[in-house]
Amino acid sequence: MKNGMWLYLLQLFNTLLPLLTIPYLTRILGASVYGSFSFSLNIIGYFQVIVEYGFNLTGSRKIATAKNKEEIEKIYSAITTSKIILCIITFVLMIIISSIFNINQTQFISMIILYILVIGTSLQQTWLFQGIQDMKYITIINVIARTFSLIFIFLFVKNPNDLYVYCAVYSITFLINGIISTIIIAKKLKIKYKIPNFFEVKNEFNEGWHIFTTSAMSRIFSTFSITILGFISTDSDVGIFAAMQKIPLIIVMLFAPIGVVIYPYVSKIYDESFDKGIKVVERIGKITLPFATLIAIVLIFYSKEVTNLVFGTEYVTYALLLIPLSSWMIMSILNNFLGIQIVVASGHQKEYSTAFKYSLIALVLFNIIFGLLWGVYGVAVANFIAELTLTIILVFIIKKIRINNSLKL
Question: What whole-number distance in Å separates Cα of residue 84 and Cα of residue 165?
């Protein structure tokens, strides 16, 4: 409950911040410039996932079950080293990709500036605080960093020419977060970094592989539509879709702390009994999902009013996008319970990764086909269909796991 309160304080802040900045930015920057920013951020997001490598799940689970401080330091050192290595690799990869796909100058400069957030991600230690089940530090760090970001946005972003300024303000938050969290771990928690050997780092990469592939596919799930629109449509269409997608994404963020809080807890319960763990998840889901469904219904029936209020009249003609996007939102929240809190938390990372592979194929195919046919509306519907595909697969996987556990007993 204590960790839940700290996380909800953070998530409330993270939810309110976009509600303050997005209406301002979509009006100040305009759909086209906001679309250019969204495309650049989208590409950088893929590199961010590579650096995270699924350590937020594998690392926190290992920390939660660590027997002593020495073991915690060993895990911390190996994962931190792994993230720094990946940070260097992805920077080189970014330069190569930009050259191959002939990214325009504005987007390339934006990507270089936004890469600061990847550096910050390599230093962030959210997984460690999650593992020791002490989330107050993460909340305090994020609130401080994002408060500065909010102030700088309103002070320095005044017109479409301030795109690069906004990129810098956006990304510096992650760097501040990473630096402060590293200092707290060293000074407050007294956890020391010790250079790991090759096999310790290799072990972390091996253990995190299935979660990494899942995380990478999850990132593709949430952002592939922007990527495909960036190549087949205009910056204006990208900006409109990226803005409209923010509404359901903010709602998903609001529910995210529930999963973060219960994940280490149910992970331990699954070690005792799979049925006991799944009952805990089911009880929480029965409270959470009806509330999320109610929000989706409100967004659908009042789509024009919500769009006009948040983004302005330029976006109202695209209000119908909230119908498939709100439906996607419900499936996304449900899949967190089915996939992360049941399949992954019970130690079946490989099965979860397999489910994602099939749903990813559906996502790519439907986004390309529907995107070419119906533009922004097509990719919105494709997102929902792909998420629904994942839901169906996860239900079958959970049934299979239950049968296997019953046979063992």
Answer: 26
Q: Does residue 118 contact residue 44 with C-beta atoms inside 8 Å?
A: yes
Q: How far is CA 80 from CA 50, 74, 122, 311, in A?
A: 13, 10, 7, 39
Model confidence pTM above 0.85 = no
Could you give the 3-state DSSP secondary structure of residue 409?
coil
d(CA 18, CA 22): 5
pLDDT digits (tens, 9 = 90+) for 197-249: 888 888 888 887 877 776 676 666 677 888 888 888 888 899 999 999 988 98
Pick the closest to residue 167 from 31, 314, 44 (CA basis). Answer: 44
Specify whether the CB–CB gap between 370 and 311 falls below 8 A.
Answer: no
DSSP notation for 295-348: HHHHHHHTHHHHHHHHH-GGGGGGGGGHHHHHHHHHHHHHHIIIIIIIIITTT-
Single-letter code of the amino acid located at 255: F
The first and second tokens of residue 266, run together, are 């149910």
Q: At 67, is the secondary structure helix, strand, or coil?
A: coil
